[in-house]
Write a structure and sequence with these properties.
With 471 residues, the protein is of the alpha/beta class. Among the domains are: 134 residues, no CATH class; 118 residues, Transcription Regulator spoIIAA; 59 residues, OB fold (Dihydrolipoamide Acetyltransferase, E2P) (Beta Barrel). The protein is built from 13 helices and 18 strands. The protein has a five-stranded mixed barrel with strand order 14-15-16-18-17. Helix 7 runs parallel beside helix 8 and helix 12 runs parallel beside helix 13.
């Protein structure tokens, strides 16, 4: 989601006349798209802004922060950053910058409206032609209040056309916010309540991407399979949205894969799985967060589903889409988690044999309901439970990957591999695959690779041929 947000931030800054630079010392504006979901990420924000504020002793510089930010973090950021705003207010960023008193490259091409004054210094012109030293006028800071609804005006944000960072992979936001209020989660406080984007806008954006040759498109939301529930009677369901995507895929005759993330088990219905099974362009990879394999822990997490419900979903996936890969999210060391409850999660790993699991050691997030409870699982215990689940993951994923040896698999080539002389990409099921080649023209193409060896979380093979693309 933050990567997708960044693509729209780039558009707004480009329209103001700015261009990106890899060198922070050259920048006139520095910003962070933050994530308050984990403390480690926020710690990095504090470290970076401290560095940037020291730069202000040597040059005029504007800093901003946006993204998924908890109210408690926003209050602190207001004292450190020049601008703090929810992502839904991105369309107002140009006005924020102007009112703050910073001239943009585009504004220097226009008549001075009296709000900005050049200093006697010579403007600094970095190698990419952007960045100016300008004096700030005495206009007040206007960062948005962290108490505002972070999802307000999200429709305006969606209307900002993204500056895609890839010419073959793209994200399409379909929904913002979450109404589930899991006790460990900060999303409802950082993104606001659920709002669904109009279906026709989503389909139109997808069609444009496919026509431009994009091969991998991910539908994004904090809770994608609750799509349309906030607009019952006036919007289609998530299953119907996927069906329309599938119908277009059949009609287009083009090869592309459509993914979605993240779903919630409570809203995952059989009709969603049935639609995925029916259409070729709907990728046979499903990310289904389990968080814990113990019903009592799930109740404390306020997940609003039990393992019987989750097990039904997995069995339906295995029955209707036997070739699908299954990914999940798990939290270890949640408040009060006993050894028996953790063992139930380990057994779930063994039962479902996930292809990938994103395992996190529980950390308290201010504002979330569980922040009021004692974080009573020692760090050493969390690390050990993390290790055990990681071992389970690698054991079962290795068995799955070894079964692919000798088979030919389609791979979307994403770039050079860390192994010299190799390219790498992922399969439709998002399994990482490398093969010997230095032909960079293959990047962004779907090729066929015969699998020759397997590791726990990756595969290696030999290039067979480039899959001819229709159109």
């Amino acid at each position: 989601m933050n990567l997708s947000d960044t693509e729209r931030v780039k558009t707004v800054l480009h329209e103001l006349g700015f261009q990106p630079t890899e060198n922070e010392l050259e920048a006139s504006i520095l910003g962070i798209i933050a994530c308050s979901v984990r403390q480690k990420a926020i710690d990095k924000v504090y470290s970076r802004i401290a560095k940037w504020n020291r730069l202000k002793n040597r040059k005029n510089l504007l800093t901003f922060v946006s993204g998924c930010i908890l109210p408690s973090d926003s209050e602190k950021f207001l004292k450190l950053f020049d601008l703090v705003f929810p992502m839904s207010e991105l369309p107002q960023l140009p006005e924020m910058i102007r009112q703050y008193g910073v001239a943009t490259p585009s504004s220097l091409m226009q008549a001075d409206d009296g709000l900005l004054r050049k200093t006697s210094e010579t403007p600094i012109k970095p190698r990419d032609g952007v960045g100016f030293v300008l004096e700030k006028v005495d206009t007040p800071k206007i960062p948005s209040s962290p108490k505002l609804n972070p999802g307000k005006n999200i429709d305006e944000f969606w209307h900002v056309e993204p500056t895609y960072t890839s010419n073959f992979e793209a994200f399409i936001p379909i929904q913002n916010g979450c109404d589930k209020f899991c006790s460990f989660c900060a999303v409802p406080y950082t993104r606001g309540r659920e709002v669904s984007r109009p279906a026709q806008e989503i389909i139109d954006e997808l069609i444009q991407l496919v026509e431009k040759g994009y091969k991998s498109i991910t539908l994004l939301g904090q809770n994608v399979n609750s799509y349309g529930l906030d607009k019952k009677g006036s919007e289609i369901s998530f299953a119907e949205l996927l069906r329309r995507v599938g119908e277009y895929g059949n009609q287009s005759g083009k090869k592309f894969w459509v993914y979605f993330t993240s779903p919630h088990p409570r809203d995952m219905t059989d009709d969603v799985i049935e639609v995925i099974a029916e259409y070729d362009c709907l990728a046979k990879q499903i990310h289904l967060p389990v968080q814990s394999g113990d019903d009592r822990v799930l109740m404390r997490m306020n997940r609003k589903h039990g393992m019987d419900k989750y097990r039904h979903i997995v069995h339906t996936i295995r029955r209707l889409i036997p070739q699908a890969t299954l990914f999940t999210d798990i939290i270890v060391g949640f408040t009060g988690e006993t050894e028996e409850q953790f063992e139930n999660t380990r057994k779930v790993m063994e039962e479902f044999q996930y292809n990938m699991a994103y395992i996190a050691q529980y950390s308290v997030r201010p504002g979330a309901a569980s922040s009021r409870w004692e974080d009573d699982i020692p760090k050493a215990v969390k690390k050990e439970r993390f290790r055990q689940l990681t071992d389970e993951l690698t054991k079962h994923s290795l068995v799955y990957n070894q079964q692919l040896i000798g088979k030919t698999i389609e791979v979307l080539v994403r770039g050079r591999d860390r192994k010299a002389g190799y390219l790498s990409g992922y399969s439709e099921g998002k399994l990482v695959i490398r093969f010997a080649s230095e032909d960079e023209s293959l990047i962004g193409q779907i090729v066929k690779v015969e699998i020759q060896s397997a590791a726990s979380l990756s595969l290696e093979g030999e290039l067979v041929r480039i899959k001819e693309m229709v159109g």
